[in-house]
Amino acid sequence: MVSMKDISIKCGVSVATVSKALNGQSDIGKQTAQHIRKIAKEMGYFPNAAARALKTNRTNNIGVLFVDNMQSGLMHEYFSSLLNSIKAEAERGGYDVTFISSNIGQSRMSYLEHCRYRACDGVVIACADFNDPSVVELVQSEIPVVTIDHVFNDKTSILSNNVRGVKDLVSYIVEQGHKKIALIHGEDTSVTQKRIASFYRTCQEFGITVPDQYVKSALYHDPASSAEATKELLALADRPTCIMYPDDFSFMGGRNVLDEMGLKIPEDISVTGYDGIFLSQILQPALTTVRQDTISIGREAAARLIESIENPKAAVAEQVMIDGQLIPGYSVKRIP
Amino acid sequence: MVSMKDISIKCGVSVATVSKALNGQSDIGKQTAQHIRKIAKEMGYFPNAAARALKTNRTNNIGVLFVDNMQSGLMHEYFSSLLNSIKAEAERGGYDVTFISSNIGQSRMSYLEHCRYRACDGVVIACADFNDPSVVELVQSEIPVVTIDHVFNDKTSILSNNVRGVKDLVSYIVEQGHKKIALIHGEDTSVTQKRIASFYRTCQEFGITVPDQYVKSALYHDPASSAEATKELLALADRPTCIMYPDDFSFMGGRNVLDEMGLKIPEDISVTGYDGIFLSQILQPALTTVRQDTISIGREAAARLIESIENPKAAVAEQVMIDGQLIPGYSVKRIP
DNA sequence: CTCATTTACGTAAACGATTAAGAAAAACTT
DNA sequence: AAGTTTTTCTTAATCGTTTACGTAAATGAG
Fold it and tell me: Which of A3, A264, A293, B200 is the most exposed place for a label (fewest CB within 10 A)?
């Protein structure tokens, strides 16, 4: 590996001069700097990240927290797409992306310790148990943090606009003429709470009362639990005309139940999903859903994190709402 | 951050002694070492990765190459699952995982340069264009490399046993009584070539001749192209009784076509997928497919890479075959 | 008791970069 | 022309570790 020393020898200057020339410091002669840069390129020089990190305490490395309780974190298209976007934006800003975990080898360390160990310049918390003390510790540390879909006081967070998304979805369903709308929601998280609240509120705005039996609890990304909930809904004396699923993938579970019972979508029953994953638009009929803008969410998360790393004084903690987009599809029947 | 210096002061010994005690060197008194370790733990000491890397030229960091031409790399469940497994095994071995990319900030660097810049101890090449000169350069460098599903001379590679997988699949289909089997395969890669060859060979072994029109080309993970191929197959005068799809997800495209034409699976036509993704077993009927053992593939890749990092002299390049598992499902009809 | 060996620790030089402070040379003042 | 400022470069310290080597004390051999 060619180091600054090699360049300094070749150029007949000191190492300090090389460093300053390469970093664009002003106190180096124009032509000297140019010459040094040329030689450096010729020799294929790249800075030694470790040395630079040691001295500057900056690594140009951001950590991502993707904790997959039940090994499913990255399997969700929502999260893998998010990661992709974070990665892309980080690269654009000159940062690398490293996974943060709670145990490295035999020694178990907290997320914070891991971050310090690797000297991450910042962390994106994308998928984690936000109540985990180890996560809270990290959030409250001095390390710049951006969270996704969860708000911590005084920290920047990027939020998929679930309130608006559900509102759009419900509005669309109502506009198609439905009055009996059921909601199957995921496990209790702040996202879920928002979706449920928005569901009730929007229904109310349209003067629709929702019987308690129309709201069922299931799990995200779990077709089995959605299938179960679907059965319960279909067993009701007064069936809903439209069922909203926690997410597109879970819908696949409900779909099977509907199939078995000989119910056609959307002729006999209408359905909606959430997320807008690739699969949802492959299905026949295309699923009515809300596409969460993972590209923007990831991009904003990385960009804001980098901003607060590079300009800590001016870093303002804020909540950034990213709107999703209603995809009408063909799974909701128009009722005259 | 507490450093060795802090510990050395508290313990009244030199920094060198602390270093040696913490690293388990033999030339430190038993009780001294124990005391130092105790204090270190009390003070919450963790080594500074950058300093250690600078001195030892080892980072305990492995790079992963997941190049997503057309931004789909991580979207495939095969790859995201692979990444998950690599990550898990790396963590077990005390390594962190960093993405390697070709451009970091404004300066475009080759994969190799990126690896050197970050001083990755090794790299897993999981998803990339193996003909890309930049990839080849990396493979031929001094950095330990393990490739997945592609063999480079003198390098360790982990291979999903596609030959066996397709053989098992075809055998199963034949055993169910099928003689007219069509294959829709993915774009030209070494994996695809193996699958096609294994398809032909197994058919031959069973004395089945495959008309050229029964073999169609499509793209992996692309339902549209598989749908197209399905149409072509169904337009044939002598239709196949079973269609093999490039992968489970692509099958979804074919499924729509079959649906439209009123063909029931498996009563009217049999189908198989490949991969064994979550979705495949949610479908009704459950898809006959081959589950690729991504857990083992990822684990072996990381484990072998770490082995060759930590014991370079004894590192033997080898090809490790990981068998998949036939999942019978219910999408292939038994023909008497 | 002396000399050799072992044990346990300290000294100091690296690793490759950054940066404050200093110094020589050039340019500008008046 | 002498002093002042500016420009350009060097010196040297530093970041936190690791490690070859040195050395003093303890132990053993004869």
Answer: A264
